[in-house]
Write a structure and sequence with these properties.
- The protein is an alpha+beta fold.
- The chain contains 14 helices and 27 strands.
- It starts with a helix and ends with a helix.
- The structure holds glycyl-adenosine-5'-phosphate.
- Glycyl-adenosine-5'-phosphate is lined by residues 205, 207, 237, 239, 248-249, 252, 254, 256, 322-325, 362, 364-366, 368-369.
Length: 502
């Protein structure tokens, strides 16, 4: 993660928000390369999920909506996370990410340690030894194997055991509070009044904007069941522990679809089809199938209205975590909005000749998490020979050409030969009309290649003396293999078109 964060800052992908004031936890700014990468991810998602499908239409709803929407959806009362505070360190942890291991000394249970998810065995052993020392029992034999067995979630810990638990960042024992609920929605005030009637919320998901507009789209569009409504947009959550770079932030962006189906439809099959669609889409932007796994939520942990939820998990640098949630949410949301608004949410299904409130399958993906997954997959370090044949280490982002910020970089071999520069500039201007490309005339050619490798530009195009004196062909260098081949400008266009848009 450190290498990725370093590269992102060094090359202008992602900055900490408000950095000149020391940063602002949970917020990030996307620089010139980051915004290109981000836009490419969103545009491809929109193209594949909306424009290239006949059954999904788009929407862009407002971020602040009538507060009753969040009453109806259950967010006002229920959108909170159980958190555990440490009274000593003043740190706050999400309860579902805090795990407890028993500490066995001389074959007897002496207490517990609480660690955050993903803590490795050696850190757990160190923590247990800290507890042992604190108990004044330095000579006691620690059962290390027990620290390698399954932990319990802190929510399942008995009160009596909490008093004997050493927290992740505490020196004293028994400093952790019991889990308490913390509200995640950001509040704001709308209009001139500052009283309770003016309270509104920054949306914590884009999904409710879709449900709130479902009736508009049914009444004005020509949609028929099954159909989906897609939306890309900002969402805000007052995450108590924003961390792991852009993985969990307080302002982020979602790409969500509500796919409306008949209550009689075979939702299990449709849910499976959506999972496959999502996995294939990730593969199409360069996240291989073998890096994605499925986490099926067990029935007793599902929300009461949910029929099934499966998360697509990705191996992020900080561990395997949720990337994309695909939930079957029954008719809960539309039913709630019908109840709270008094407006019918029923649709007349021509094929079944009956009216009903449709059920929904919801694939919900974060733009920022996708970007982090893409960076994680693409980041690589290898060794290649430089201009003089000496093998050097290089950092390379192996982005798919589809999402790479720059699709190609155009170089005249040398900058002091006006005829070469003229052809290179002409080619650059021509390619720029179609794609985001880069022009660089200064420095040794190997160095120029390396600069582009580091920001993930898949192709280097060099105009050299053969271009000028022989056949007009240019050299195309492949970032990943570093292989070079000559191509005519026409063949080059065709090649790039296939690689980027095919
Ligand atoms: N409408 C359903 C919904 O919002 P969610 O699992 O809470 O479900 C969906 O969020 C997706 O949004 C997640 O899978 C993740 O990709 C992204 N996401 C959620 N919270 C996030 C956060 N704090 N920072 C970045 N991305 C987040």
């Amino acid at each position: 993660m450190e290498s990725i964060i370093g590269l992102c800052k060094r090359r202008g992908f992602i900055f900490a928000s408000s950095e000149i004031y020391g940063g602002y936890n949970g917020f990030f700014d996307y620089g010139p390369l980051g915004v290109e990468l981000r836009n490419n991810i969103k545009n491809i998602w929109w193209r594949d999920m909306v424009q290239r499908r006949d059954d999904i239409v788009g929407l862009d709803s407002s971020i602040i909506m009538h507060p009753n929407i969040w009453e109806a959806s259950g967010h006002v009362d229920g959108f909170s996370d159980p958190m555990v505070d440490c009274k000593e360190s003043k740190l706050r942890y999400r309860a579902d990410q805090l795990f407890v291991y028993p500490v066995i000394l001389d074959n007897e249970q002496a207490g517990h340690i609480a660690v955050v998810e993903g803590t490795d065995l050696s850190t757990r052993i160190k923590q247990a030894k800290k507890l042992r020392d604190h108990l004044g029992n330095k000579q006691a034999k620690l059962d290390e194997a027990r620290l390698d067995s399954d932990p319990v979630e802190i929510t399942e810990l008995e009160d009596a055991h909490r008093a004997t638990t050493l927290g992740p960042d505490a020196k004293e024992i028994g400093t952790l509070t019991e889990p308490r609920e913390f509200k995640l929605m950001f509040e704001t005030k709308v209009g001139p009044l500052a009283d309770q009637s003016a309270v509104a919320y920054l949306r914590p998901e884009t999904a409710q904007g879709i449900f709130a507009n479902y009736k508009n789209i049914v009444d004005t569009g020509r949609v028929k069941i099954p159909f989906g409504i897609a939306q890309i947009g900002k969402a805000f959550r007052n995450e108590i522990t924003p961390r792991n770079f852009i993985f969990r932030s307080r302002e982020f962006e979602q790409m969500e679809i509500e796919y409306f189906i008949s209550p009689d439809a075979d939702w299990k099959t449709l849910h499976r089809e959506w999972l496959d669609t999502c996995i294939n889409w990730l593969e199409s932007i360069g996240i291989p199938k073998d890096q994605v796994s499925e986490d099926v939520h067990v029935a007793d942990k599902l929300a009461f209205y949910s029929q099934a939820t499966t998360d697509l998990m990705f191996e992020f640098p900080h561990g395997k975590q949720e990337l994309w949630g695909i939930a079957c949410r029954s008719d809960y949301d539309l039913g709630q909005h019908q109840k709270h608004s008094g407006k019918s949410m029923e649709i007349f299904d021509e094929s079944q000749k009956k009216k009903y409130i449709p059920h929904v399958i919801e694939p919900s993906l974060g733009v920022d998490r996708t970007l982090l997954a893409v960076l994680t997959t693409a980041y690589d370090e290898d060794e290649i020979p430089n201009d003089k044949g000496v093998v050097e280490k290089r950092t390379v982002l192996r982005f798919s050409p589809k999402i790479a910020p720059y699709k190609a970089a155009i170089f005249p071999l040398v900058k002091n030969k006006p005829e070469l520069v003229e052809i290179a500039e002409k080619l650059y201007k021509k390619l720029q009309k179609r794609w985001n490309v880069f022009y660089d005339a200064s420095g040794a050619i190997g160095r120029r290649y390396r600069r582009q490798d580091e920001i993930g530009t898949p192709f280097g195009i060099t105009v050299d003396f053969d271009t000028l004196e022989k056949d007009g062909t240019v050299t195309l260098r492949d970032r990943d293999t570093t292989e070079q081949k000559r191509m005519s400008p026409e063949a080059l266009f065709e090649f790039l078109e296939e690689q980027i848009n095919g």
